[in-house]
Design goal:
374 residues
């Protein structure tokens, strides 16, 4: 076992590895790099007017003083009213009923949660200020009148006390943003184009504080009865399919007729699609611009709208653009009706068709092209 203040064998191996890497970066052997460091140390000691041993002791003393000053600065940086709160967390004890009630209530509220990655798993993350706001809302008072385990909340201090129940029962823990490549001995990689923007990789903090802008991650998933019911249903379905040979003869015949009928409908659909394409190719040359059977079959419409109308002409792209421009102009005219001289709106004798009535999909119905009289 290593003496106090002496490096452990693991630390010695890590130091040797770093020493070898530095020597390789400078293009030297370990012996050359060691001589180079000793020469620099002698030059620095001679400039300071000390021996090598005195200079090393002086540098170590300065480093210890700097570390002590940093610790003192961190301790004095906290305001008197915002002292660090340490919450005792015991993962072995079951959650308290009050903590479960608070977690269920906050889970039912809109805390604007974000998705984060904790230990390789996706979790929901929320801000402390939104949780405090929810605990002081009238909804909490109404829920507490129905649910007795909820603790009483009168002000922000009691809301913080209620929120402390979550980390104490391991239902939610404070997290901060972490670098997924922290601790790796390699350069920072380039930005991953597949990385989702705003998806943090977080780590759990030791001190569970409750400042408004801090983030907490949910470890409480709520009631999982729906997930369990879906899993049980899927398992029963798989077992039923596996045991198909043991089904009664009536059920097996019904499944056979149903499968044959579905295959027939699928084949009929493909035959109709091929026939309508052949019909269009023929009518493009015989009766331009071409005729479509079930023109909305592959359009983004409902199931029944896909089969109506029965047929329609192929629309020209230029004519379609002109029709859209005319519809836009007609819409602007309906928004600004003509006014009379005395400022009142003049009523028109004929009603203007609405844009929604004129808006049609591609070749919804057959039409006769009108020719201008000479």
């Amino acid at each position: 076992m290593a003496n106090p203040g002496q490096p452990t064998p693991q630390q010695m191996a890590q130091m040797q590895q770093q020493f070898m890497q530095e020597a390789a970066k400078r293009g030297m052997t370990p012996q050359q790099f060691q001589e180079f460091n000793q020469q620099q140390l002698r030059e620095a000691a001679s400039k300071a007017g000390m021996t090598v041993e005195q200079y090393i002791t002086h540098v170590r003393t300065q480093q210890m003083k700097q570390q002590q000053q940093q610790v003192q600065a961190q301790g004095s940086a906290q305001a008197p009213g915002q002292q660090q709160q340490t919450v005792a967390v015991n993962p072995n004890n079951p959650p308290k009923p009050e903590a479960l009630a608070v977690a269920k209530f906050l889970r039912s509220q809109d805390l604007k949660t974000r998705t984060c990655i904790l230990d390789g798993q996706r979790k929901d993350m929320f801000k402390v200020k939104r949780a405090l706001r929810a605990l002081q809302s009238p909804a909490y008072t109404k829920a507490r009148s129905k649910n007795s385990p909820l603790p009483e909340v009168k002000d922000e201090a009691t809301a913080r006390s209620a929120l402390q129940l979550l980390p104490m029962s391991m239902l939610a823990l404070r997290v901060t943003k972490a670098d997924p490549h922290e601790g790796h001995n390699h350069a920072k990689p380039a930005k991953d184009p597949k990385r989702v923007k705003g998806l943090w990789t977080v780590k759990v903090e030791r001190h569970q504080e409750f400042e408004p802008l801090m983030h907490y991650v949910w470890l409480y998933e709520g009631s999982q009865w729906k997930t369990k019911a879906y899993a049980a249903g899927a398992l029963c379905l798989v077992m039923a399919l596996v045991m198909f040979p043991l089904w009664p003869i009536v059920l097996r015949q019904g499944v056979w007729y149903l499968s044959v009928g579905m295959m027939g409908l699928l084949g009929l659909f493909f035959a109709m699609a091929i026939f309508r394409l052949i019909l269009f190719c023929v009518t493009v040359f015989v009766v331009p611009p071409g005729l479509w059977l079930y023109p909305n079959l592959f359009e983004d419409v409902g199931f029944f709208d896909s089969f109506r109308p029965l047929w329609g002409w192929q629309e020209n792209k230029k004519a379609k653009k002109k029709a859209k421009k005319n519809e836009a102009k007609a819409g602007k005219e309906t928004l600004a009706p003509p006014t009379s001289t005395n400022g009142t709106v003049a009523a028109s004798g004929a009603s203007t068709p609405s844009t929604s009535q004129n808006a049609t999909k591609r070749h919804l119905s057959p039409r006769v092209e009108e020719a201008d009289d000479d």
